[in-house]
């Protein structure tokens, strides 16, 4: 495949997603050094911020004769969403250590070798992404919300994607594009970050489609109540306050399926992804000096055991 012509849409980074070493047993990134100091940590900032490295993407060429199902699946997805075929198809098997993922990527090229579409299919045959690279056509009238929903739904059904319920439809630009999004759920509980998303361009054509799906662990036999989850987080915030002198308020909380992460446990940095677990997702708002460095801390509390699974920080 002509490397100069291949379009790689994104590069992912490996690094610590957490911020507050003083808020748990863990560490955070370089940007959090001042926050960590404000919260009273004695650990040197350099120890709190492992170096961020670009993900390693290893590609091995594949041929249609070797993996006919992959090329056929890519064609089916393009056809379902009205994306163009090229004069030839080029494929690579990708090992992406940044995403802890392996998938096959098929690029459609025109006669001049220019990419016109790209599709990614994981090892189970599930489509991860499809995108076309041409510009939308001229339209006398931009596609409306209902038309965008109908077109995206038609394509998703034809492609066999696992969309659930009624989608959210939101405008994406002043020209009239739309994102149609289906949130994944299990037992009526949202799976954090999992979705099917279709972008409908101003002329009503489909510009891209993406699907994110994670393995889910078994639901715990018993589930902590909201009051129990909030009490656990309140205990933690009191410990933070004693250490840092800053106050924290425990705000909204809801059950979600979440992926354990390294936000508060640096030993998990670079570890393989674990199945998502049912957790109480609890928002905590820093006050005082800590508020100068972060707006919100999100904690994932295992709904079965009460253990801290990780979380997120909004700076």
What is the approximate shape?
globular
Give the strand line-up of the largest sheet: 3-4-5-6-7-11-10-9-8
Query: Rounded to an integer, what's the Rg over CA atoms?
Result: 22 Å
What sequence of helices (H) and strands (E) makes up the elements?
A: EHHEEHEEEEHEEEEHEEEE
**DSSP strand count:** 15
**Biggest sheet overview:** 9 strands, antiparallel
> Which structural category do the helix and sheet elements fall into?
alpha+beta
Task: Please provide a written account of the structure.
This protein is of the alpha+beta class and 315 residues long. The protein has two domains: 136 residues, no CATH class; 158 residues, no CATH class. 18% of the residues lie in helices and 35% in strands. It has a nine-stranded antiparallel beta sheet with strand order 3-4-5-6-7-11-10-9-8, with helices on one face. The chain has a four-stranded antiparallel beta sheet with strand order 12-13-14-15, covered by helices on one side. A two-stranded antiparallel sheet has the order 1-2. Helix 3 runs antiparallel to helix 4. The longest helix has 19 residues. It is globular, with a radius of gyration of 22 Å. The two termini are 41 Å apart. The N terminus is likely disordered.
Note the topology.
Elements: E1 13-14, H1 33-38, H2 45-48, E2 53-54, E3 57-62, H3 68-80, E4 88-96, E5 101-109, E6 115-122, E7 127-132, H4 145-159, E8 168-171, E9 178-186, E10 189-200, E11 206-212, H5 226-244, E12 247-258, E13 277-287, E14 296-302, E15 308-314
Note the main attributes of this structure.
single chain; 315 residues; alpha+beta; 9-stranded antiparallel beta sheet; 4-stranded antiparallel beta sheet; 5 helices; 15 strands; globular; disordered N terminus
């Amino acid at each position: 495949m002509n490397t100069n012509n291949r379009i790689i849409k994104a590069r992912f980074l490996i690094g610590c997603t957490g911020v507050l070493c003083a808020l748990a047993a863990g560490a955070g990134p370089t940007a959090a050094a001042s926050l960590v100091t404000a919260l009273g940590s004695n650990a040197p900032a350099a120890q709190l911020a492992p170096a961020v490295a670009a993900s390693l993407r290893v590609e091995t060429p594949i041929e249609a004769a070797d993996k006919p199902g992959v090329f056929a699946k890519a064609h089916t997805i393009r056809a379902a969403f009205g994306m163009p075929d090229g004069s030839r198809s080029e494929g690579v098997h990708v090992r992406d250590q940044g995403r802890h993922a392996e998938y096959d990527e098929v690029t459609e090229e025109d006669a001049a070798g220019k990419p016109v579409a790209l599709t990614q299919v994981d090892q189970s045959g599930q489509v991860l992404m499809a995108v076309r690279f041409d510009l939308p056509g001229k339209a006398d009238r931009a596609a409306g919300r209902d038309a965008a929903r109908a077109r995206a739904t038609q394509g998703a059904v034809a492609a066999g994607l696992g969309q659930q319920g009624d989608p959210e439809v939101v405008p994406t630009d002043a020209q009239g594009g739309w994102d149609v999004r289906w949130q994944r759920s299990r037992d009526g509980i949202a799976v954090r970050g999992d979705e099917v998303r279709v972008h409908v361009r101003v002329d009503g054509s489909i510009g891209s489609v993406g699907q994110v799906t994670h393995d889910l662990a078994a639901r715990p036999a018993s589930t902590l109540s909201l009051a129990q989850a909030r009490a656990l987080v309140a205990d933690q915030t009191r410990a933070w306050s004693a250490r840092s002198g800053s106050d924290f308020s425990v705000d909204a909380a809801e059950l979600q399926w979440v992926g354990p992460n390294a936000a508060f446990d640096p030993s998990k940095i670079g570890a393989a992804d674990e199945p998502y677990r049912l957790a109480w997702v609890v928002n905590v708002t820093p006050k005082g000096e800590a508020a100068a460095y972060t707006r919100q801390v999100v904690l994932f509390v295992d709904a079965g055991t009460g253990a801290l699974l990780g979380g997120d920080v909004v700076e």
